[in-house]
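Render Protein kinase domain-containing protein in 3D.
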Amino acid sequence: MKKKLQLELVLVLVLVYECLGGEMMMIQGQGQGQGQKVVLKVVLRVMLSILFGSITGVSCALVSACLVRFVFRFMKKPPILKGPVVFSPLISPKSLQSALNSTTQLLLIGRTYYTTTLPHPIALKKLLPSFHTSSTSHTRRLQTHLHTLASLTHANLMTLRAYVFHNNTLLCLVYDYVPTGSLEDAIIKTRLNQLHIGWDARLRIAVGIIKALHYLHFSKILHYNLKPSNVLLDAHFEPTLTDSGLHTSAPPPSVYTEKSDIFSFGVILGILLTGRDPSDPLFLEVTSSSRGGGMGMWFRHLVEAGDAREALDKSLLGQETQEDEMLMAVRIAAVCLSDLPADRPSTDELVPMLTQLHSF
């Protein structure tokens, strides 16, 4: 570097000398003061020329670098995929699109899912118009996230098999078909006495959900939409989570954290214990104080009063051993539903809490 500066200095001196050589004849015969002025003008002219050339060169280099960087980043961006995007070799994009366009091929199961055979049986969840992407960058982010979700593998996590985009709107998600339907459907049937789900099955559901949630949180993914309709059950009441990590806004709100997912899990655990909907007026009757109400406050009120047994679904009461497990689960639900996120346990803590209630 030092040698380069020395060479540039020599070059400047040579240029000055050559320019002065051209001007020497002009200053001969003139006064000493006037000659010095001419020399200064020549030197100044040379220095300004060098400075201007340097600035121009640096500017051109910066512009070129920015242009190359922009082109490189543009080329690295993944293309926006349209139509059915399939991750499973058992699903044909053409057959999937044909099924979506036909009202006769889709059979409604439960409240939110449809099923069809392509010939592999699949479940489709049609989404609300809120999954419209407002910009190209949002579309790319959502598609990248969907591809990440398709790569997740866990026994209690439903693998995304395909999705369909059209006119910047995520129309539907495709999963493997689960014959029993969702937890929401099962709970409704139990209220209507059309289905009986014992405590062992309900605890199995809770354990499976928290294990899947732990896997997501370990992968730095939040669920955002954990609720009974997004928990599918197989014939043995083994749960699988769907719609993991999806949110209608871009980017997702920063106030939503892992502890928000824990609160949602607490609601599901409360539903499994009581058999009641979170909006049931019963949860407001006991806690009609100025502190407000809700399932969490109702659970805490019963635990503090020593009446946790009153929270249990009457169809579950019977065996003393199971009642002890259920009463402990009531305490766990109450903690998950704490008003302060910091007071809620993590999935690292909840997995052993629930698995130790029973041998799974």
